[in-house]
Amino acid sequence: MAAIRKLLPFVEPYWKRATLALILLTSLVFMDLAIPRLIQQIIDKGITQHNQTVVLQTSLLMIGISILSTVIAVGNNIYSVQVGESVARDLRDALFLKIQRYSYGNLDQQQTGQLMVRLTSDSSAVQRLVQITLRIGTRAPLLMIGSLILMINISPSLALTMLPLLLVTSAVIIFFIVKMEPLFRSVQQKLDRLNTVLQENIAGARLVKAFVRADFEGERFETANEAFTEHSVKVMQFMSSMTPALTIFVNIGMVIVIWVGGLQSIHGNLSIGQIVAFTNYLLTTMTPLTMMTMLSNTWANGLASAKRVNEILDTVPEVQDNPGAMVLPEQISGKVVFENVDFHYHGTGDEAVLKGINLVAEPGETVAILGATGAGKSTLINMIPRFYDVTSGRVLIDGIDVDQIKQDSLLSQIGIVPQETILFSGTVRDNIRYSHPSASDDEVIAAAKAAQAHDFIMEMPMGYDSHVEARGSNFSGGQKQRIAIARALLMQPRILILDDSTSSVDVETETKIQDALEEQMHHHTSFVVAQRISTVLKADKIIVIDKGQIVAEGTHKELLQTSPIYQEIYDSQLGNGFPLEATGPSNRQSRQK
Residue 219 CB: number of other CB atoms within 10 A? Predict the structure, then answer.
């Protein structure tokens, strides 16, 4: 129930409608409880006394109550649905915004399929829980309490006879509800796995087809699907045993009432109308119990989902603004300094990904980062925008520790082209403007030209208004990278990070991009992560990383003389015969000229 209490703030904005729904529900309960009494009156004062007027008047009153009950029930349904849907909407918004605030470390520990289930299936389960509570969940206990009171009023002795049966029935229901909650949680976990496999295969459908792995992926999906089905079947089988068990208790109760009540009637202690009314109240007591068991799957599912939703809402982002964090000035020089930085993922004691990193990037410098796959290049640049917090040491921008800068302020000064290029559905113009929504068309075009994207965009049927499919599936890898570079350039950042962002373009286009960047970014600091050595030849400073450590630093010519690792990379890609003069001067030297 603690999980439900945590979600009550989502209901509070709609407390008026929720309260009105409960008031209507309470009115409905009183009307339901009045019917057996009216039946008793028809029998004892109408039929037994041969009084047609009483029968007619009471029957008309019952019809009127039934019509009014219908109207009230409709009103209750309308308000409960409004509250349930509104709560689900707000919950989905809160979950989405919470995920958006996650740090990279939080996202590393969550699978996409799991997050999608929380936003969809789990939110819907909480919605059903709210609606059922306002429509039936509250009605059932009120009917039970009211019926018990009226049963005692009719015949205390007969009511006491039924009390043990009601207690046993209630215990059975509680047993089923307690057992079902963990069962539903396991079903949701299997649904997580099923959605993860599904999401992976939809995203990687082309790869699956290219490697002819459809049969393998089909078996993987079938395994996840079978596990989900097996758990669902177990839950349904367990639930299906409830109704027969409760039906037995209802029938036993009816037998007891007719037997004991009949004996009391023979001795003149109960009238026939009272026995009929008592039977109706017994059914009114047992029916909610049966109803609650049938709805217990909704409650159990809702409770399980509420716990899973709270796991997301209770997650604390690993990277947060520290107390007293400052806003960077609009104009910064862009000097970046790493001071003896170590980093472990998730703060574990495993081998450090970065070890003793000391690096200075002066304003206007282009710093290239070279190294083997898994050496720590991307991790290093992720320290600058504070996507992760360093384990030890400091990262400084203009002498200010990034820990002491507000995240929004920090990121507003940094343009990033990530290793994995992401485009959103919409237009090309919208995707380039993503970093600077208020940018003019001229600024968009200028950024696209600098990224060597303008020509291929203009060749498209609608130019900058051409449609982009989800994840940019209608663009080549090189085209997506150039649009991503244009997006980063549009915000005119003080610090530009290019994480292997030209790996999918040809060397000629890459050279043009580098020349354009040199013209646009000469007042700003650039970090370029690359696999190709041709990408880094003109950098002011080249850093070679190996196993999380900087093993060499200098210009291209300096490293050829001093670094065996760099010499090996150079020879493997460009060959010993590549003339040094062809590399040209560094970016800073050319700008100085």
Answer: 11
